[in-house]
Amino acid sequence: MKKITTFGELKKSNYKILPLKEEIRRNLIEKLKLKENLFPGIIGYEETVVPQIVNALLAKHDMILLGLRGQAKTRIARSLVSLLDEFTPIVSGSEVNDNPYAPISYLASKLISELGDETPIEWIHRSERYGEKLATPDVTIADLIGDIDPLKAAHERLHYSHEGAIHFGIVPRTNRGIFTINELPDLQPRIQVGLFNILEERDIQIRGFKIRIPLDELIIFTANPEDYTNRGNIITPLKDRIEAQIITHYPLNMESAIAITEQEAWTQRWGEEGIVIPHYFKEIVEQISFEARSSDFVDQKSGVSARLAISAMETLISNAERRALANNDKIIVPRITDLAYVVSGVTGKVELVFEGEEEGITKVAKALIGKAVKTIFKKYFPDPNARPKKGNGQDVIKTEYEEILEWFAKGNSLELTDTMPFDTYSKELARVPRLKEFTARHILIPEADRFSLASAMEFVLDGLHQHSKLAKEEEFGAPEISYRDMVGSIFTGGFDEEEEDEEL
Question: Where on the phi/psi map is residue 207: left (φ > 0), alpha (ψ -120 to 50), or beta?
Fold first, then answer.
């Protein structure tokens, strides 16, 4: 069809141009029949958000995506472009993507009246039919709708009241396409009023012109819930004109959360064989976000973006990469000691309530990481605080942790650093009796993967610390982390302040 270059050729081809929402509806129905993935890259919304969007599009509704930050609202809006025809014809040179059969601008109408079937036609790609504007307090009606252009009027020798003197804003320039306004509540109320006609009458008015220019668009808005944003609100008459309100959400389960982070985080730096990330590490990173979303110290109205886990994962790998570069290692495997540096990926992603501010962002972040380790530890290992069982002779059966804890109770300690070469790191962990056997029994790690096994062994020690069975002495930026007997540490004054973080 792109070979068609004139209006006459277009008419002879019997090419039909559907109204935009009819075009989207037709292409959506085709994709549904073929069972295609409508929103590639959007994970966790298959049974919740996507059906609502499909219903809105089938009903030819404009919509608002309402949700906290980091819930893929803008990505969803941009992905709707895939429901447009790959190419569509417009009057060549048109500022508002004029339909050759029904031009709306003065210039296109004039061109067709003068040239008739010889009017030049061009084909624009679907990607050119998407417009987007971030709502900020300084956005004006002229930005969105348009205004009189004095230079254009002077150049064309037109009176200011002439239709040809109009400079169109971004909304009419996206005619026959999809237009998105992000963060709608930030738009000043008087500017929101200017959107009424677009949503209801499907036209725009510029200045004092008596003319109305009919638009053919799908309008998408995104916003945070009104009870979150303190910067503004969506005025009621505008909200009433938006036909579909779709609520987004954070990942509902661990599998979806891990899939999102794997898709978005930059992890493949040394090739697929160069970086090994044990599954429990992926779970710990995601659990930090889950813990933050339920913490009383974090402002839940602000939300905890999926970007927290992405940033945390990239920081975790970077610290492991730094160690590998320093030690000339050929493989990168994260260690529990690396989690101390994940704090920097957490602190900027959460907003604290007053109580959290009193505790301090770093302390809250470390507590969230500790809780995440504790929660995931329970998925793989027995509860260290479970009551000992009694045998048939009523003798108390030792727990699986007994030999490990007894070694520390004898005054032994374990010293680790995040820059420690692997052989030294492995030998230090091997000093703890039965630790290797216990770890291998509960976490399925290939015997040849000694790197992951060593990290898992440290995971056991940190899990015991989070359950108040071992003391852990560390300070962010300190060269060493030390695991010691809890009771002995209390009496010697080495009790770690992190134990207080359990209250967080």
Answer: left
